[in-house]
């Protein structure tokens, strides 16, 4: 449902409730009480969800996973009231496993979602994450390419261009790999942290994006034999304050180049 449709529906319902409340004050009181309950539940959800996101960003994966799984297990009322999107929780659990470096488990959670019904806010990240999992596992490269192509047409975030580059690096096609790195470095939205996907505004964590960006650029320059540039980018990623797979892998590769 579009934002305009929601506003129209809300106005109609508000008018209807107001008319009924004039003729039946009890009805108005009951509806007001239910509205208060809904707001309270929404605040509870938002607090738990924000805490889980923060734990994920900080690399506290076990705590983040417990939060998300708790919401998933106890969220039937939230789902029914449209306060909580079960698909979004499943996607975020997949992201936890991805950033943890447990790629097969990440894919297993992504497979719980219908790609055609992924929430608009995370459609592009969903496809990009699926592709990266496959690339790290050296899995089905054709399927990875399909997900990358979907990422290219379902959002405005340029980060997937670096994953395209990594895809071609694995095939030793450095000409195409370079073209995607160049596209990324020249992209006008490269430094944006907030993107609109459908009717939802999605904000990426700046520290994580910086870590990932430098990691993939470091991989590219390592692949083409420019060790000094590779070390320059990988060092930034290795010094990330967040503990995740990218930081650990950047540290390992950087030391191997020293």
Quick one: how many beta strands?
A: 2
Structural class: mainly alpha
Runs in which pLDDT lies below 50 for 5 or more consecutive residues are none
Order of helices and strands: HHHHHHHHHHEEHHH
Overall morphology: globular
Helix content: over 70%
Overall pLDDT, averaged? 81
Relative strand content: under 5%
Strand order of the largest sheet: 1-2
Q: Outline the biggest β-sheet.
A: 2 strands, antiparallel
Rg over CA atoms: 22 Å
How far apart the termini lie comes to 54 Å
Q: Enumerate how many helices there are, as a single number.
A: 13
Descriptive terms for the model:
globular, 258 residues
Describe the structure.
- The chain has 258 residues and is mainly alpha-helical.
- Helix content is 73%, strand content 3%.
- The chain is built from 13 helices and two strands, in the order ααααααααααββααα.
- The chain has helices spanning 3-23, 25-57, 61-73, 76-80, 86-100, 103-110, 123-136, 141-153, 160-170, 174-185, 206-223, 227-238, 245-257, and strands spanning 194-197, 200-203.
- The protein has a two-stranded antiparallel sheet with strand order 1-2.
- β1 and β2 (200-203) form a beta hairpin.
- The longest helix has 33 residues, at 25-57.
- It is globular.
- The N and C termini lie far apart (54 Å).
- The model has no long low-confidence stretch (mean pLDDT 81).
Task: Please provide a brief summary of the model.
With 258 residues, the protein is mostly helical.
Topology:
Blueprint: H1 3-23, H2 25-57, H3 61-73, H4 76-80, H5 86-100, H6 103-110, H7 123-136, H8 141-153, H9 160-170, H10 174-185, E1 194-197, E2 200-203, H11 206-223, H12 227-238, H13 245-257
Antiparallel strand pairs: 1-2
Helix pairs in contact: 1-2, 2-3, 3-5, 5-6, 6-7, 7-8, 7-9, 8-9, 9-10, 9-11, 11-12, 12-13
């Amino acid at each position: 449902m579009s934002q305009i449709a929601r506003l129209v529906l809300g106005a109609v319902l508000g008018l209807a409730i107001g008319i009924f409340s004039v003729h039946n004050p009890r009805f108005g009181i009951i509806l007001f009480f239910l509205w208060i309950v809904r707001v309270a539940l929404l605040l509870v959800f938002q607090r738990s969800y924000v805490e889980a996101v923060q734990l994920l960003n900080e690399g506290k994966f076990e705590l983040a996973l417990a939060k998300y799984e708790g919401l998933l297990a106890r969220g039937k009322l939230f789902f029914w009231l449209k306060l909580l999107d079960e698909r979004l929780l499943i996607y975020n659990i997949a992201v936890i496993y991805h950033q943890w470096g447990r790629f097969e488990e990440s894919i297993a959670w992504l497979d719980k979602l219908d790609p055609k019904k992924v929430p608009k806010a995370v459609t592009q990240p969903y496809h990009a994450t699926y592709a990266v999992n496959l690339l790290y596992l050296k899995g089905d490269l054709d399927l990875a390419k399909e997900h990358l192509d979907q990422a290219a047409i379902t959002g405005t975030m340029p980060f997937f261009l670096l994953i395209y580059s990594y895809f071609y690096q694995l095939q030793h096609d450095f000409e195409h790999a370079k073209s995607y790195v160049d596209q990324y470095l020249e992209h006008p939205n490269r430094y944006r942290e907030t993107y609109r996907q459908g009717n939802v505004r999605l904000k990426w964590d700046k520290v994580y994006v910086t870590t990932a960006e430098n990691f993939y650029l470091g991989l590219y320059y390592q692949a083409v034999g420019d060790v000094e540039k590779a070390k320059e980018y990988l060092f930034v990623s290795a010094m990330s304050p967040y503990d995740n797979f990218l930081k650990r892998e950047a540290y390992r590769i950087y030391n191997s180049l020293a």
